[in-house]
Write a structure and sequence with these properties.
Distance between the termini: 22 Å
Helix content: 55-70%
Order of helices and strands: HHHEEHHHHHH
Number of helices: 9
Strand content: under 5%
Largest sheet: 2 strands, antiparallel
Strand order of the largest sheet: 1-2
Number of strands: 2
Radius of gyration: 22 Å
Length: about 230
């Protein structure tokens, strides 16, 4: 359901390094990093990956610190800013999960074939085209981030899109999607009933239900294929 543990880099070693340094803002020494990445690479490979990240200014190394301080690697300000964009992307993936579950919930009421097509058509019209999502992609594309960061971002976006598209297809089945006709499916979704359905029918865990509740806080569920 969520993307908190999604790999942040096509290169798993670099992704692990950046994740570890984000989780340890005080910094980590080389040996500390090696203990946590030795299943992924040898020491010589780790040194090479660190040098590449230093060259891209994605991390700060021992040479950037005054003599006498602990020799550690830290995440750079560049990565901190980029990580905020990455977190927004993952938040989008989680929000879209709620959209998909609401679509499935509405369709579980077995509407007529005509109404089913209209409902799916409306949802399809905005699927993966939310203004915020497109703005986020455009912002990163036109940013000063190095190409490797941009590649990582779009790699992550593609993983999210592919997973959600697969879920969308499994929910809708082989339905012909026509051009929207202006029809609005405006049934009010009762939050408690919706959460109960997620627990009973979708078998979501208590932890997952709590995450859904958090995402739904302050959201009007006048369902028209999007949040009202």
């Amino acid at each position: 359901m969520n993307f908190e543990n999604l790999s942040e880099w096509p290169d798993p070693t670099k992704g692990k390094i950046c994740t570890l340094l984000r989780e340890n803002p005080q910094g980590l020494g080389f040996n500390e990093l090696y203990k946590k990445t030795r299943k992924l690479c040898a020491k010589v490979t780790l040194r090479k990956k660190l040098d590449e990240l230093l060259e891209k200014e994605l991390i700060e190394g021992p040479q950037n610190w005054r003599h006498g301080k602990k020799q550690v690697y830290k995440i750079s300000e560049t990565w901190k800013t980029y990580a905020k964009h990455l977190d927004q992307l993952k938040d989008y993936g989680n929000t879209l999960f709620i959209d998909l579950m609401m679509l499935k919930y509405v369709l579980s009421n077995q509407p007529s074939d005509e109404k089913k097509e209209q409902i799916i058509c409306e949802f399809n019209g905005k699927f993966l085209t939310k203004t915020g999502f497109l703005y986020l992609l455009a912002s990163v594309y036109s940013s000063w981030y190095v190409d490797e960061l941009k590649g990582t971002f779009f790699y992550t976006a593609d993983k999210i899109a592919q997973q959600r598209l697969k879920e969308f297809t499994s929910i809708t089945g082989p339905v012909k999607i026509s051009v929207p006709t202006g029809y609005k499916f405006s049934s009010m979704i009762d939050k408690d009933k919706f959460l109960g359905w997620l627990e009973d029918e979708e078998k979501l865990s208590i932890e997952e239900i709590e995450k859904v509740k958090k995402l739904l806080q302050g959201v009007s569920l006048n369902y028209t294929g999007r949040y009202a």
